[in-house]
């Protein structure tokens, strides 16, 4: 495609839950330093694709290649070691660990070598987490848990960051901060971001390219500007209520 | 709107002096508000402000540290919720709720989830299982009614087709709707919804709006909701209460709250909609390329966005070309006088001591701006400002904190410059006095 070597390329992947096919023939790629977004209705298979990258569930057919290496059959923990970090849907933080410990889990790939530096960055982004540093994750409010999940993913110094609905349950102002921060990280460190969002307008504004998923199939793809201007996309995901 | 359903227009829920402390953490601090009967009341605020804690107090999950929660039912009965156990609140006070992270019985089918919600009436009519086992007709009728009611709600939420699927298999948006239906099956008078639109896309939240309005119109149920999706809050709620750090910071109609500076600062930030609108205008004007559309908006709206966040780079909204343009126009209006003209001022003897950093020896081009146009500046102050080398709006617009202090000292004002927001006024005037660089838009941003 546009770049000779994509950082992540997903080729013809099919994923099943039991006998139900959740993804059929999905081909998606992300070039180094790109922000790519995946939009689509609830139940279209966006989160499934995110999880498939991590091998839970495994792709039944097709290949997933990260930085030239086939990771389709790699165990999940080995995939994480390649510096792919994920902020999963539904804030899967460690509820009995404190905020600090949750962040340490994220930084464990480097034996906490960069913990101070990176946690400062996370606290700059989410000052709320600093106020709650010794509180257990499970006692945080919903939105704070979401911040923690994103913060933990960032602590891993990822090369590829997978964000599954980062804006879920967050105040409008915080969403803006997060989107700005993603853009900033992307610009400054060349971080590649793969973003799943319900807030399609915000996601397309942020991303370089986007894919539209319908019922487990990638139905459309293109530059964000094209998708934003596409009448079909607008009708399905951008309009209705947001005026 | 709803006239017959509720004759009793009083408050259904009165929250008075509610406080909730967890050890040393004050989650809610002396909160007072009312939810009107038959109205949709929204509770909004930054994350961790204590919104869900308020819900947990209302529904008996927590016992509040202090305060009174009075629920008045349609028939006039009053309940003090803080004294009741959670299951009694549902049963007697008729309060139902949904959860921020969905808590359906994911192993049960969709239909079963709705039947569980009707456990109380079913238990009664089955004589606590005995009559049910014996197959008494009263029980059979009750069971049929329960299924009928479940069907009614399944139709409302468009899930009849999936009635026999496990609830956990439904996509996220459908689970959210099912939670609302389950709550409605308990026939509540007050329905508490914790972020019902979280994880829904624009279209789905529009459908949710319709569902909630329908619920209110058809059953007269009062709704209290926590939500971050402003397209839901501002569109359907009659009344909005804003919390920050457990304290109420604003309370009123959606329009009032939306324009409350405190709410904007703490919660909303700058509205994206302004940009959306402009893009749409551009499209209407026949520009289908988004970049060109954004270029079109490089005038007022962009200035406003840039000025509201002087320190933030508006990269996500605006392509580089537009930024460059704003930056240059900003520099034209603000930076230049500060940066370039300060050196001559240092040597200019005409300027009094204690002047601001960007004082000028004389008005540029010999023509001072009419500073009295700024609210709060009269002729006397204008003269004083002129004496101190301030002749132009853009000079005031460029004032930093130290300059404001300096100016306040010689004007003998205390805090008035900030209070009357001279700087913003001056910015506006400075902009107006400038020649507009880009083509005019029609319609204008709101």
UniProtKB/TrEMBL annotation, chain A:
UniProtKB keywords: Amino-acid transport, ATP-binding, Nucleotide-binding, Transport
RNA-binding recorded as keyword: no
InterPro entries: AAA+_ATPase (IPR003593), ABC_branched_ATPase_LivF/BraG (IPR030660), ABC_transporter-like_ATP-bd (IPR003439), ABC_transporter-like_CS (IPR017871), BCAA_Transport_ATP-bd_LivF (IPR052156), P-loop_NTPase (IPR027417)
Keyword Magnesium: no
Domain ABC transporter: start-end pairs: 8-240
UniProt-listed Pfam families: ABC_tran
GO biological process: L-amino acid transport
Recorded GO MF terms: ATP binding; ATP hydrolysis activity; branched-chain amino acid transmembrane transporter activity
Similarity section: Belongs to the ABC transporter superfamily.
UniProt-recorded name of the protein: ABC transporter ATP-binding protein
TrEMBL record, chain B:
GO CC entries: plasma membrane
Domain ABC transporter: 13-270
GO-annotated biological processes: D-alanine transmembrane transport; L-alanine transport; L-isoleucine import across plasma membrane; L-valine import across plasma membrane
InterPro entries: AAA+_ATPase, ABC_AA/LPS_Transport, ABC_transporter-like_ATP-bd, BCA_ABC_TP_C, P-loop_NTPase
Entry keyword set: Amino-acid transport, ATP-binding, Nucleotide-binding, Transport
Pfam family, one: BCA_ABC_TP_C
Gene Ontology MF, one: L-valine transmembrane transporter activity
Entry similarity comment: Belongs to the ABC transporter superfamily.
Name recorded for this polypeptide: ABC transporter
């Amino acid at each position: 495609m546009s770049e000779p070597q994509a950082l992540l390329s997903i080729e013809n992947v099919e994923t099943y839950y039991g006998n139900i096919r959740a993804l059929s023939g999905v081909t998606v790629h992300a070039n180094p330093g790109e922000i790519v977004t995946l939009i689509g209705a609830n139940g279209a298979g966006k989160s499934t694709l995110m999880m498939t990258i991590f091998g839970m569930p495994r792709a039944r057919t097709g290949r997933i290649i990260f930085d030239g290496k086939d990771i389709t059959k790699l165990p999940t923990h080995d995939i994480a070691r390649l510096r792919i970090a994920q902020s999963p849907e539904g804030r899967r933080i460690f509820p009995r660990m404190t905020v600090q410990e949750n962040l340490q889990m994220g930084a464990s790939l480097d034996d906490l070598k960069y913990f101070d530096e990176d946690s400062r960055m996370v606290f700059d982004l989410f000052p709320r987490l600093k106020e709650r540093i010794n509180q257990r994750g499970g006692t945080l409010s919903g939105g704070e848990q979401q911040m923690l999940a994103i913060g933990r993913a960032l602590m891993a110094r990822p090369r590829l960051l997978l964000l599954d609905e980062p804006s879920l349950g967050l105040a409008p102002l915080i969403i803006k901060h997060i989107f700005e921060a993603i853009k900033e990280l992307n610009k400054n460190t060349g971080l590649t971001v793969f973003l799943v969002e319900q807030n399609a307008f915000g996601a397309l504004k942020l991303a370089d390219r986007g894919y539209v998923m319908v019922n487990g199939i990638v139905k459309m793809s293109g530059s964000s500007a094209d998708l934003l201007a596409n009448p079909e996309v607008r009708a399905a995901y951008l309009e209705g209520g947001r005026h | 709107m709803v006239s017959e359903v509720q004759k009793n227009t009083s408050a259904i829920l009165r929250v008075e002096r509610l406080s909730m402390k967890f050890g040393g953490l004050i989650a809610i601090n002396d909160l007072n508000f009312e939810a009107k009967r038959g109205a949709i009341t929204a509770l909004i605020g930054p994350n961790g402000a204590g919104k869900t804690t308020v819900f947990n107090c209302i529904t008996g999950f927590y016992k509040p540290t202090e305060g009174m929660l009075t629920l008045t039912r349609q028939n006039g009965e009053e309940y003090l919720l803080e004294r009741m156990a959670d299951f009694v609140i549902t049963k007697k006070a008729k309060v139902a709720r949904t959860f921020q992270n969905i808590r359906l019985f994911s192993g049960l089918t969709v239909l079963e989830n709705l039947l569980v919600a009707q456990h109380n009436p079913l238990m009664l009519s089955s004589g606590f299982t005995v009559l049910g086992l014996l197959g008494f007709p009263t029980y059979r009728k009750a069971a049929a009614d329960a299924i009928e009611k479940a069907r009614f709600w399944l139709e409302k939420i468009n899930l009849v087709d999936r009635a026999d699927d496990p609830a956990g298999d439904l996509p996220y948006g459908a689970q959210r709707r099912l939670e609302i239906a389950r709550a409605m099956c308990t026939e509540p008078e007050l329905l508490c919804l914790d972020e019902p639109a979280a994880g829904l896309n624009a279209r789905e939240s529009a459908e949710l709006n319709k569902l909630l309005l329908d619920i209110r119109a058809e059953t007269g149920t009062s709704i209290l909701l926590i939500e971050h999706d402003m397209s839901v809050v501002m569109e359907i709620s009659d009344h909005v209460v804003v919390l920050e750090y457990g304290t109420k910071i604003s309370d009123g109609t959606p329009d009032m709250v939306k324009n409350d500076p405190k709410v904007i600062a703490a919660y909303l930030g700058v509205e994206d909609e302004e940009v959306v609108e402009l893009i749409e205008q551009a499209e209407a004007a026949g520009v289908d390329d988004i970049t060109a559309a954004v270029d079109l908006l490089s005038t007022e709206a962009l200035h406003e966005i840039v000025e509201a966040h002087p320190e933030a780079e508006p990269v996500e909204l605006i392509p580089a070309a537009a930024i460059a343009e704003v930056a240059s126009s900003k520099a034209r209006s603000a930076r230049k006088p500060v940066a370039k003209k300060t050196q001559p001022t240092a040597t200019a003897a005409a300027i009094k001591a204690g002047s601001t950093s960007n004082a000028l020896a004389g008005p540029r081009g010999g023509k001072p701006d009419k500073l009295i146009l700024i609210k709060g500046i009269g002729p006397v102050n204008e003269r004083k400002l002129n004496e101190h080398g301030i002749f132009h709006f853009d000079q005031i617009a460029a004032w930093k904190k130290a300059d404001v202090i300096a100016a306040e000292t010689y004007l003998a004002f205390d805090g008035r410059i900030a209070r009357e927001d001279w700087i913003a006024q001056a910015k506006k005037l400075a902009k107006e006095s400038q020649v507009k660089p880009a083509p005019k838009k029609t319609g204008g941003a709101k």
